[in-house]
Amino acid sequence: MLAPVGWTGLGQWAFVLAAFAGLVLGVWQIDRQRRGRPVSRAGIAAVVVGAVWALLQAALGPHAPVALLADMARNLAWLLVVYALFARDGRHESVAPVRPVLIVLAVVELLQVALLVLDWRFAAFPVARAMIFQIAVMLRLLVITGALVLVHNLYAGAMTAQRSAVRWTCAALAVIWGYDLNFYTIAYLVRGTPAELVSLRALAALLGVALLAAGAVREQTTGRFSPSRTVAFQSLSLLVIGGYMLVMVGVAQSIAWAGGSATMLTQLGFVFASSVLVLALMPSGRLRGWLNVMLSKHFFQHRYDYRAEWLRFNATIGRGGARGPGGMTSGAGDTVPLHTRVIQAVADITDSARGALLMPADSGELVLAARWQWPTLDVPAQGLDAAGAAFFETHGFIVDLDEVRGGIDHRGEAQATPVWMIEEEAVWALVPLLHFDRLVGLVVLGRPAVARQLDWEDFDLLRVVGHQLASYIAENNGQLALLEASRFDEFNRRIAFVMHDIKNLASQLGLLARNAQRHADNPEFRKDMLVTLSNSADKLNALIARLSRYGAGNVEQLAAVDAVAVAQALAGRWPHGASGAQVVVTVHDPCTIMANRETLEQVLAHLVQNAIDASPARQSVRVELRSEALHGCIDVIDTGTGMSAEFVRNNLFKPFVSTKAGGFGIGAFEARELVHAMRGRLDVESREGLGSRFSVRLPLAAAAALSPPYSQQDVA
């Protein structure tokens, strides 16, 4: 063990090094602030005051009045830092109960001035000075205990994704005040400040500066503070700290009663051993996880403030405008679709910054319906196959993708999860949306800024929210179905008027035919007959122009059709197109399919015309033909404006929804129905700003007897 002079020398050098490091850190932070970087002024002041304190400790010793005043100033400066962190981003109004606590701690710390005056006044009375020392140490213990409680609440109350903004400062304060808690506890028990502990205090100050420097280097965001449930966290903190102090007092007092020359060494050994034990146990993930679940589930308040979560959930689902900075909503012109709000409502719970929504197609697989703040996610046309969708519908299991990647398989979710999700590291969790045991959607959550393992409370809350969101989606689907039915009723009423006009024209023509039998030789009659026929033809043409230019087609008569010849003949209709476009046919494989030629021409003409309309002027439209297993595939590809996943899912194949002025909006719907009638399928892949691909898949003639037809309910 070092001699007293050795400990004193070590302490002086350590204090000098801590002062130098603090001044360097302070100057660097001031330079960062001058360059416009977000730096806390309270933090700079505390670091500089701490450096001055360390310098005075090295020069004058720990008992000099000026050094004691510097010690008081350092504690007040760090209390100001704690308040600044609570009040970050101007949110101090939401943590108003913290201010009275800080004021009380500051007043108690300022009492050290009065004790210094009393110590000077009664310098000639050793008994009085000993009592003043004990009072000063006890007041320091009160201040440090309260400060540690605040530091604990500051870190524990921060949102999971935002703790990185306060982690390093809280760690530094925990080291500085944590050591002071032990230092003043022993000083109170032995009625003095051993040189050994003073030297180690300098090392603790140096470690605190190092943690602050590491935090300043790694800090990337300003972060925001979210207040905790104060009563529960403060109760837990006071209980832990109070129990620790009782153990320290009891053990240290027992050692002091035992006496002997090894008393001080034994006390230091106990402090070291207890610190090592705490540092060894606390990093244990299993221990911390078990304590967290047991305390949260059976004793203390839960992780989530369910009232706040429910209010936020309803605000997200109920609003129509996009949320901007500060949580404000934009106007009605920026209405957010329901599916996007569904993703955000789930993502807010886990602090995920992005997500996507998969919804069932008519054939059972899941396809991309919407995405939120995740434009880079590459989702295949079939996001999840029918077997995977059946798994989520049967089990309602919330999947943690990190567990799947780690080889953990609870209920077979590893086999149900598609490969592209497992390979995409940014995909973090899958939340099924069930409505009366029917899967209406699957929310794909992106990895939050600070990823963590989902626990029982996350699963419970996500499961409840998933059921609620599923009911909203089901209700929305029902409303859309009713709206579509009403539009069909409106269409039927319009057709009734058309049939009335046709009936009138038919009556006129029938009357003209009967009169022609009697007056065919009359020149005047023939002249009137030509006028009537011309007017009837004009009326019919005008009537036809108001209807879709495509008919139903006789799709029942299927035969072997050379799709290459059909495509090449179709391309000849647009040698350069009205807008300068050109249709380019590319043949990868011979493609003889089972179809009705006129119907196939009708479908492809519609798709090519739409591709030309969506493409820039003089931009080519490609028609590619190839064979895929038992089916022939005809792709119509453009590089135009493209469509969003929401539009493809909700509007593209819905009747009476048209982006063209005066259009009926039944062209895409009719094309898909005609392809289905020929026992085929129409798939769509589109990206906004990149273009679209419409794929017509029909059975090959050579394999028609072997190929099972697509269901009439298949949806692209």
Automatic annotation (TrEMBL):
Record has Membrane as a keyword: yes
A molecular-function term among this protein's GO annotations: kinase activity
SUPFAM superfamilies per the UniProt record, alphabetical: ATPase domain of HSP90 chaperone/DNA topoisomerase II/histidine kinase, GAF domain-like
Catalysed reaction equations from the record: ATP + protein L-histidine = ADP + protein N-phospho-L-histidine
Start and end residues of each Histidine kinase domain: 497-702
PROSITE patterns: HIS_KIN
The protein's Enzyme Commission number: 2.7.13.3
Superkingdom of origin organism: Bacteria
Protein name, UniProt field: histidine kinase
Lineage: Bacteria, Pseudomonadati, Pseudomonadota, Alphaproteobacteria, Sphingomonadales
